[in-house]
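Support reply, case 0932

Customer input (verbatim):
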Amino acid sequence: MPVKSFAKQLFEEIIADPKKYIQLDKKDRMAQTYQNDSNQSFLLNKKEKEAWRIVDNDYNLTMWDLSDVEVASLFNMPEEARSNAMQTYARYSLRVDHYADGVGLVSWTLQPDGQYWADSDGFGGTNDVEYTVYAYIDTKGRILIPFQPMEDYDLRKRYHAQALKLMEKPDETFYICLAPELTIPTTENTNLAAHSDLLSKLIRGAMIRFATIANNLDAHPEHSDGIAISTSFNPDEKEYLLFSLFGEPTGEDDQYELKVALGYFKEGQDPQGCLTPFGKMSLDVLADAMTIEANVDLFINEIINSADLIFSGKLPQ
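Our regenerated output:
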């Protein structure tokens, strides 16, 4: 008899004891379930009879980590909100809002509205503003669009459409950031030096996400053949610059080669790009390299030089 996966075993355990769990339907035969006597919650796929724990008893996210967050979107948040995100701590709320067409919207409150602290008489409230980030996931809980602010309804619709493409053609489609505050107009691609502050924020975010994977590679089997994190500079799925960090195994014991790439993608044209190697190193050193401030400036200079070469028309074929 085939051995059941842990996801199927967990599903059977939850279904077998309905008094122990509160189950909320999220459409598309998906559900979020809460354990009555703890803080744990679970994602259920009732069609495939699988379940995954998404929050543990200490309010920590268990299915997603910082690599699943658009980290650059956190830098301007208040300290508590930013800290809760960086620690993947879900004390206030982590909710699967609903599924549509096989894509689920997840909301994660990093800092509640000040009235959260008020007592029944309305005393004790603060002036805090709520900060919530959202992500889109598939029916196995895999991240399609990373956690980020998404209060604008039109932005959510556009991300939902992108998530469908990512789910249907994962090998042909990149996640493209659509948030205006985290992107540069395509008309400015030949003038990246003027946007060095934003580039710094985007690159720092990508480096943190990369280091998260490198520091916990066993939890990321999808990166067993190499670590890769990409971030787009333009909010246009038909034309964009894509910055990527790669950690490629060299075949030697615990040795990876760090590479930085800038690609230019435009609908109807062949992609162009530059790939720069930065040397071989162990996995620990690779992760540490993502924490060195001087490397941010190093990568920015490489990106600007690569963009100049791409748009000069002199890029070697």
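We compared this against your earlier run and they match. Two observations from our side: DSSP finds six helices and twelve strands in the chain. The CA atoms of residues 162 and 175 lie 8 Å apart. Please reopen the case if you see a mismatch on your end.
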